[in-house]
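Researcher: We plan to redesign the surface later, but first we want a full-length starting point. Tokens attached.
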């Protein structure tokens, strides 16, 4: 018979019980090294050890060398890990916390949804521009170009053949009713798709 002895009770210390890591890429040991250097009273010795820590950070994260001004970034990271309390004669000025923690300004996006996503936002903007134009040959040419693009796009991507009535309905919707056209008003140019060669499944006969 095989007896399984119960494991002895042990006190396990998880990382969740320790201080959270400021920059996880360098690991907890680097953070402890920085904390230890901050306790050294001699400024020259602090600076020398800080330079050694930067070399350790490079070895732990070598891909940082691919970045521009990577040495300054490493020193910035060193100050950030120390909560900006490390006082040494580094080669770069200490970064300001408000600049590091500054939230970037949000990128403005249009709230208006695209009516027909398969046409794209650019075409919708072109329709709006055409609707705002006064009646002219330029406006007629632009509308015909837009209509041709809509038909060819539907044929190439959706494998759907739009007739003039469907195109007019789409133009009316995209222009919010500003473009009211008749089917005979459109001159649509159809792009002829190249035929794909049929696969040749016949096996070549071996010569005797």
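Model: Full-length starting sequence:
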């Amino acid at each position: 018979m095989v007896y399984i002895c119960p494991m002895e009770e042990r006190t396990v210390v998880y990382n969740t019980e320790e201080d959270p890591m400021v920059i996880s890429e360098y690991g907890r040991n680097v953070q402890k090294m920085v904390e230890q250097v901050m306790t050294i009273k001699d400024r020259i010795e602090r600076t020398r050890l800080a330079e050694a820590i930067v070399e350790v950070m490079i070895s732990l994260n070598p891909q940082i060398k691919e970045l521009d001004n990577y040495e300054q970034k490493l020193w910035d990271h060193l100050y950030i890990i120390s909560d900006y309390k490390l006082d040494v004669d580094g080669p770069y000025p200490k970064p300001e916390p408000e600049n590091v923690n500054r939230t970037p300004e949000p990128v403005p996006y249009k709230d208006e949804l695209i009516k027909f996503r398969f046409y794209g936002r650019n075409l919708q903007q072109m329709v709006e521009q055409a609707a705002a134009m006064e009646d002219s040959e330029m406006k007629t040419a632009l509308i015909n170009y837009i209509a041709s693009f809509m038909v060819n796009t539907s044929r190439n991507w959706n494998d759907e053949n739009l007739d003039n009535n469907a195109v007019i309905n789409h133009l009316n919707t995209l222009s919010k009713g500003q473009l009211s056209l008749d089917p005979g008003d459109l001159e649509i140019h159809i792009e002829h798709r190249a035929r794909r060669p049929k696969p040749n499944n016949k096996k070549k006969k071996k010569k005797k």
